[in-house]
C-alpha cells in the first residue's frame, strides 16, 4: 500500500480532534490527499456501534468482553471500507484513535487478557500498522474537565469512569510509547494548541516526508 497511516492517541479531551483538523489542512496545503476518520466510527455501522458504546444509558449493561468485541467490529469495518482503500489510492489517512486505544483501555485499564486483545487485533486489522502515532499526553483530570466543558457538562459512558481508570490509561500509553519509540512521538498536551500544531507538523514532515 503506497499511502500512509497517521494515528492520534491519548486520553479524553487531550486535543486529538483539534490537532487532526489542523494537520489535515497543513497536508492538503502541501498538495496531499487526506482522509480523516475516527474510532469508533467512520462507517455507517461503526457510527452505530459508537452510539451504543458511548450512550451513558448503557452504563452497567456492556460487559468488558462485549465492549472489546464492539470496538473490534467497528475497527474491522473501518479498515476494510475506508483505511485500506485510501492507502491503496496512495492517500494519507489520519485516524482519531486506532488499535492502541484497545490495548490501553480494554487491555490494561479493563484488565482483559492481552492475548485476547492481540487475537482480535489480528482479525480486525491483519498486519496493518500506523506509520506514525502521535500521543498527546495530558493529566486525566485536565482532560476530563476539557471534555466536560466541550459537551456542556455531559460525559459519555467511558468518560464517566473513575480517575484511577484514566490514570491507568495515561500510564499505559506512556509505556506503549517507550516500547515502540520509532512509531510513537509523545507530545505534551498541556501546551497551547499552536505549540502542539507546530510539533505535530514538524514531526510528520521529519518522520514521513524526509
Ligand atoms: N475507546 C476507543 C476505547 O475504550 N477503546 C477503543 O478501542 C477506542 C477506539 C472514544 C472513547 O472510546 C474509548 C476511548 C474514549 O473514551 P471520543 O468521543 O472519541 O470517545 O473521545 P476522545 O477520543 O477522548 O475525544 P474527545 O473529543 O473527548 O477529545 P479530543 O478529540 O482528544 O480533544 P478535542 O480536540 O475535542 O479537545 C477537547 C477540548 O479541549 C480544547 C478543545 O477546544 C475542546 O474544547 N483543547 C484545548 N484546550 C487547551 N489547550 C489545548 N492544547 C487544547 N486542545 C484542545
Description:
The protein is α/β, with parallel strands linked by helices. It has one domain: 3-Layer(aba) Sandwich (Rossmann fold), CATH 3.40.50.300. 56% of the residues lie in helices and 13% in strands. A 5-stranded parallel β-sheet has the order 2-3-1-4-5, sandwiched between helices. The two termini are 19 Å apart. The mean pLDDT is 96.
Give a short synopsis of this structure.
The chain is of the alpha/beta class. It contains eight helices and five strands, in the order βαβααβααβααβα.
**Helix proportion:** 55-70%
What is the number of independent domains?
1
**Helix and strand run:** EHEHHEHHEHHEH
In the sheet with the most strands, the strands line up as: 2-3-1-4-5
CATH third-tier fold name? Rossmann fold
The fraction of residues assigned to DSSP E strands is 5-15%
Global outline: globular
Q: Which compounds are bound in this model?
A: P1-(5'-adenosyl)P5-(5'-thymidyl)pentaphosphate
- Give unreliable regions as ranges: none
Q: From the alpha-carbon coordinates, what is the Rg to the nearest angstrom?
A: 16 Å
- Main sheet specs: 5 strands, parallel
Q: Treating each run of at least 4 consecutive H or I residues as one helix, how many helices?
A: 8
Amino acid at each position: 500500500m503506497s499511502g500512509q497511516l497517521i494515528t492520534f492517541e491519548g486520553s479524553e479531551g487531550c486535543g486529538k480532534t483539534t490537532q487532526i483538523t489542523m494537520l489535515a489542512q497543513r497536508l492538503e496545503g502541501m498538495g496531499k490527499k487526506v482522509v480523516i476518520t475516527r474510532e469508533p466510527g467512520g462507517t455507517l455501522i461503526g457510527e452505530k456501534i459508537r452510539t451504543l458504546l458511548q450512550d451513558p444509558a448503557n452504563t452497567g449493561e456492556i460487559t468488558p468482553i462485549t465492549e472489546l468485541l464492539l470496538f473490534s467490529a467497528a475497527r474491522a469495518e473501518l479498515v476494510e471500507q475506508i483505511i485500506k482503500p485510501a492507502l491503496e489510492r496512495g492517500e494519507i489517512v489520519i485516524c482519531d484513535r486506532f488499535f492502541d486505544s484497545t490495548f490501553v483501555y480494554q487491555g490494561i485499564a479493563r484488565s482483559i487478557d492481552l492475548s485476547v486483545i492481540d487475537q482480535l487485533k489480528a482479525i480486525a486489522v491483519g498486519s496493518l500498522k500506523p506509520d506514525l502515532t502521535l500521543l498527546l499526553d495530558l493529566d486525566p483530570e485536565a482532560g476530563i474537565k476539557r471534555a466536560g466543558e466541550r459537551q456542556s457538562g455531559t460525559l459519555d459512558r467511558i468518560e464517566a469512569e473513575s480517575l484511577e481508570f484514566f490514570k491507568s490509561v495515561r500510564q499505559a500509553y506512556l509505556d506503549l510509547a517507550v516500547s515502540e519509540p520509532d512509531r510513537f512521538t509523545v507530545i505534551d498536551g498541556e501546551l497551547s494548541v499552536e505549540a502542539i500544531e507546530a510539533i505535530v507538523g514538524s514531526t510528520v514532515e521529519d518522520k514521513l516526508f524526509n
